[in-house]
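Late entry, evening session. Most of the bench is empty. Finally got around to the prediction I had been postponing all week. Sequence below, unchanged from the version circulated by S.P.
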Amino acid sequence: MDPSSRTAKPNIVVILADDMGWGDVGCYGSTKIPTPNMDRLAAEGARLTNVHSASSVCTPSRYALMTGRYAWRGVLKRGVLRGHSPAIIEPGRTTIASMLREQGYGTAAIGKWHLGLGWRRRDGSVRNAFETGPEPLVTHSDSAPAERPEVRDDYGYEIDYSSPFVGGPLDYGFDRFFGIAGTLNTPPYCFLDQDRTLGIPNREKEIYYVSQRPGLQTPGWRDDEVDVRFAQEACHWIRRQDENKPFFLYVATSSPHIPCVPPEFARGRSEAGTRGDAVWMVDWVVGQVMEVLDDRGLADDTLVIVTSDNGAIYGEWGSPETYGHASNGPWRGQKADIWDGGHREPFVARWPRSIPAGRVSDAPVCLTDLLPTFAEVSGAGKSYEVEDGLNALGVLTGLGSIDPHRTMIHHSGNGTFAIRRDEWKAVLGSGSGGFSVPIGASTRSEGQLYNLVDDPGETRNLWHELPEIVAALIGELQPREEDGIP
């Protein structure tokens, strides 16, 4: 079938890896991990080198991607959610999916959600993030005491898994959802199908890998089968789509987030340990999706984007071993950090109709830009303007540009801000704000200032030397009173 005969609107596929760093992908310089499918997308489309997530940890980054709005404007000011945390996207807020559905798209979310769900407890109650405030949502530390109520609540023993949940993907514009609630190291250990669990988590998890928290699983649950199932569900959904209707598919893999438990066929595929094998697994998922698009004759009429939610953790979890692989490339820091290694993302895009093969751009792009970009692609145009994103279509096609002087704001794991504009980056904190030492404190009086042109590795702190630039950048951070930012 000639795709142009049905509609001028392309299909859109976003594949979002979990903790995949800028340096994990072959076309960004990786030599230890084969990524032929992502490399193919870059060779046949665009590779962007200056793309950033809004946050260096999972949940706020995904909120910003889905809504075009920084998460700190809402209830989550720092940290991430657990598997039983309540939904944090405001009811009625426009998402990529709801916008595209209004433009006639079929929509599906397959994979990790991690934006909270309205689980019903055995007493009939449902937690509401907008009534309880942000603090019960903040569970950034693996060593959180079990007596803390929000930690104990996440075990899942008080959840009525026979009841549907609310506040999930179906309430934010998706027709189809199949996935998991959060990360693979948080309960519940089960698949979710539409608005309920697939099976009932009714037993203690049988095998605990490093970093996994206590909780319940469904019978027969296997961590190493999760991404395989996501790929199967995504491909099945594509095959079922009407040829006369465009679709939007959001695939969020669990890999390479800890615990790295790739299936047997993926083990040993890299020279970077089990984490490297988990990155290879992301590339395998990309290949599965591309194969179905090719088989259906849709690949040339589909905008496919592959990126990540934040930077990578250094090496193997709990071990300094890196196998000679720089998972975040030349950038300082890692996941959760405010330095570029925490939030600079790989980003490849293929759309033969509009993106020239082999295009490379260093224009400043943020994952908040996806919603307004897709609004332009789908014909919705400026009717879907968002608070913190810009239309980046011109960057992808080479037929336009994005404001090179734009201001981008980043948020670390502990809530430390960074403001980026032109060659300057001001960090409102005294350390990484994440996992790297020194973590430091979040403060506006003792911070860091880097010239990213002269010092891309963020090694020379000019905070005290150039106070006028610091003041100008801090002035760019203008949260409203309702944002709750001091």
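Two things to note before I forget:
Residues 109 and 231 are 12 Å apart (CA to CA).
The chain has eleven helices and 17 strands.
Will write this up properly tomorrow.
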